[in-house]
Amino acid sequence: MKPVFEQTPRRQWESFHCEVVRGPGYGATWHFHPEFQITLVLKSTGYRLVGDNITPLAPGDLVLVGANLPHVWQQDPEGGRGAVHAIVVRFLETFLGRDFLEIPESAAVQRLLKRAARGLRVTGRTRDAVAERLPRLAEANGLGRIAELLAILELLAQSRELHPIASAGFVPSLSSGDQGRMERVIAHIHAHLTGDVDRAGAARAAHLSEGAFSRFFRLRTGKTLPEYVNELRVGRACRLLADEPRKVTDIALDCGFRNLANFNRRFREITRLTPREYRQQLRRSAGVQPA
């Protein structure tokens, strides 16, 4: 699953790109680009994949992705027509000129952009403050756009509420080609996510031998195919545990696990909680007393 190079759309009158995403999905595949990216999720159920990290999506999720770090935001296909509402900002390190980061006042921002090489998840009061500014940025024109983005970067640069996303050892293999192969593998995985996703089928989708596919997949994602599939399935299970009052066994089967023991084991490996502990934690967070 090799990430593809994406050319960020940028109009002649703008130094960076900001868009409000609304619709059934995000309209992107596993990709990378030279721009830094800030993504605020206002409405979505699915997962985000940044480097070698897969995390379930929820409203309020705010992330800064570094230049050329592979990523994708994937909406659950069962989410419905208006399933996604997000604000996405993409900017080059040089969007204010090549010397901007060399001035003394930009030192903290320069450090922030270096830290973003692994992706940064924004939490706490910083997330709230940035989430308040991003809609204003999306509506701003002229120098007001630049002022809003600089204010956001300053908030992020001064914060201690930013957390690395991808593992320290993640080194992707990047290429601007091979988009068709990546799309076929992604489509195969999602088509079979609740059933069987085996190496042979994925290798056929990629038009590779099984051995070559395993090396290809591990090199480019930092994960084996089973690890990747299990994280996707657990991410789906997290959403179902949060949204639906169904039995854990039924959710396990709906997410492609053959038995409850395997589901519990994989769920705990990824979340550090059992499915029941995860649901109880969500209820406590929402102020709901256990039944």
Descriptive account of the structure:
The protein has helices at residues 107-115, 124-139, 143-158, 179-191, 199-206, 210-221, 225-243, 248-254, 260-271, 275-285, and strands at 4-5, 17-23, 31-32, 36-43, 46-50, 53-56, 62-65, 71-75, 84-91, 120-122, 162-164. The chain is of the alpha+beta class and 291 residues long. It has two domains: 4-164, Sandwich (Jelly Rolls), CATH 2.60.120; 179-285, Homeodomain-like (Arc Repressor Mutant, subunit A, Orthogonal Bundle), CATH 1.10.10.60. The strands form three sheets. A six-stranded antiparallel sheet has the order 2-9-4-7-10-11, covered by helices on one side. A three-stranded antiparallel sheet has the order 6-5-8, with helices on one face. A two-stranded parallel ribbon has the order 1-3. Helix 1 crosses helix 3 (143-158) and helix 2 (124-139) packs antiparallel against helix 3 (143-158).
Q: Notable features of this structure?
A:
single chain; 291 residues; alpha+beta; Jelly Rolls; Arc Repressor Mutant, subunit A; 2 domains; six-stranded antiparallel β-sheet; 11 strands; globular
Topology:
Layout: E1 4-5, E2 17-23, E3 31-32, E4 36-43, E5 46-50, E6 53-56, E7 62-65, E8 71-75, E9 84-91, H1 107-115, E10 120-122, H2 124-139, H3 143-158, E11 162-164, H4 179-191, H5 199-206, H6 210-221, H7 225-243, H8 248-254, H9 260-271, H10 275-285
Parallel strand pairs: 1-3
Antiparallel strand pairs: 2-9, 4-7, 4-9, 5-6, 5-8, 7-10, 10-11
Helix pairs in contact: 1-3, 2-3, 4-5, 5-6, 7-10
